[in-house]
Write a structure and sequence with these properties.
β5 and β6 form a beta hairpin. This protein has no helices and eleven strands. The chain is mainly β. The strands form two sheets. Strands 2, 4, 5, 6, 9, 10 and 11 form a seven-stranded mixed beta sheet that branches. It has a four-stranded antiparallel beta sheet with strand order 1-3-8-7, with no helix packed on it. It is globular and about 40 Å long.
């Protein structure tokens, strides 16, 4: 069974940086899509960033673009989210997501329905 475990969350001041990690285990199949979503209290879960099987294609929300960088190391089954210039509005629980279904279009990377597997989440708090 596939398991995803996030790490790297914490408390940081506005303008600071964090690097989130997502370690995948339990499957020899490659992950055609891996991504990050976040959820703040009282708000819906929202897309942050995603990356394709080989890492050639990356996708970002408008809020993440220019500040966050997603990457993956397939040999280690690990995905990363480098977050720079953090803002208080980035405060949320960040979730790692992954999928093994063939991707024929980019749209599935942006939605929760495009991912079968989810981690437990890691808290990111940005103070002002």
């Amino acid at each position: 069974q596939v398991q995803l475990v996030e790490s790297g969350g914490g408390l940081v001041q506005a303008g600071g940086s964090l690097r989130l990690s997502c370690a995948a285990s339990g499957s020899i199949l490659g992950f055609t899509a891996m991504g990050w979503f976040r959820q703040a209290p009282g708000k819906e879960r929202e897309f942050v960033a995603a990356i394709s099987l080989s890492g050639v294609f990356t996708y970002y929300s408008d809020s993440a673009k220019g500040r966050f960088t997603i990457s993956r190391e397939n040999a280690e089954n690990t995905m990363y989210l480098q977050m720079n210039s953090l803002k208080p509005e980035d405060t949320a629980v960040y979730y790692c997501a992954a999928d093994q279904r063939t991707k024929y279009a980019s749209g599935s990377y942006y939605t929760e329905k495009g991912y079968d597997y989810w981690g437990q989440g890691t808290q990111v708090t940005v103070s002002s």
